[in-house]
Amino acid sequence: MTDWVKKALTRRKVKHGTRGNLVEQANEKLVYAVKFGIAMTLCLSSLEVASMMFMGKWNAEVFAAITGLIGTVSGVLIGQRV
User: Fold this and answer.
1) N or C: which end of the chain has fewer CB within 10 A?
2) Global pTM exceeds 0.85
3) 10 contacts 49 by C-beta, under 8 angstroms
4) Which one, of 48, 60, 67, 10, lies nearest residue 75 by Cα?
5) Domain locations in the chain?
């Protein structure tokens, strides 16, 4: 599994039965939502850099959006590792 987002959000359980197989479950909607959040964080970060380069000032609204997305994505990643 080379997709690190999917690997981080996958729950591993040993299914009790005759062989005790390892079952891996990943919620695909959650994986896509986290990937979207990471992509939007990168886009908003580049927008903030462009704002500083071309306008010469800090944009607080874009920074607030970046902070919110980072908090959401890290909360999902930490919360799913249970």
Assistant:
1) C
2) no
3) no
4) 67
5) 4-79
| Residue 6 DSSP SS3 | helix
User: Rounded to the nearest 10 degrees, how much is the dihedral formed by the CA atoms of 60, 64, 70, 72?
Assistant: -170
Q: How far is residue 60 from each of residues 15, 17, 52, 56, measured CA to CA in Å? A: 49, 55, 11, 13
pLDDT for the residue 53: 93
Residues 6+ positions from 47 with CB-CB distance below 8 Å: 59, 62
Q: pLDDT of 13-65, one tens digit each?
A: 767 766 667 777 778 888 888 889 889 889 999 999 999 999 999 999 999 99
Cross-strand partners of 12: 24
